Amino acid sequence: MGASQTRPEHKYQDLADKTGFSLEQIKNLSKRFQQLSGNEETISRDNLESIPALANNPIRNEIIGAFFDKRNQHQDAVGSCQEIGFEQFLMVMSHFRPPTLKTTVEEKEAMRKEKLRFLFNMHDTDNDGTITLAEYRKVVEELLSKSDAITKETAEAIADAAMLEVASINVPHMGPDDFYEGITFEHFEEILKGLEMETRMHIRFLDVDTAKMGCGKSTS
Length: 220
Fold this sequence. Notes:
This protein is mainly α.
């Protein structure tokens, strides 16, 4: 071989270790971050609200809020931020990494749990560890908001019936006068146990198709 190739500057190596993204993927995500932020060091909700592909998404507010939710940024904290930097942005994006052929069974299970926790956090808007009926109603109303045939009262009735069904599954011996406080994360896992999450949870509205992004470490 000719002269040996030199390794590129690994300024993102620490982020690669934290997120599982390759150095090349982090560079690509950095370019998208700069586009969204206007080459600033942080992005705000306004930056994400300006994305055309999100305009008609019925759970647009929940998706945007997820990026500013500290629980999704691996901070071991609760609450929300007004703005986030690139590292926080990357930590949220890491929830959407698909598994590869080299991903072990244990790693796939960890990824699945992480994705489920992310989805749970989107619905548990008050950070109390439970998706209440009020929170569930709000999501159902937003999901059905594009249908002119569905009134708010009908949407609430659908949410109430769905929550009652969840209660009957998770607390089968409830009495008629018992109050179901809401869906815990353990209940949430049980509800979605048959749904394959590892490769389905993508994010395309940022013009980044994570389903096509390999998630192994860079070897060059």
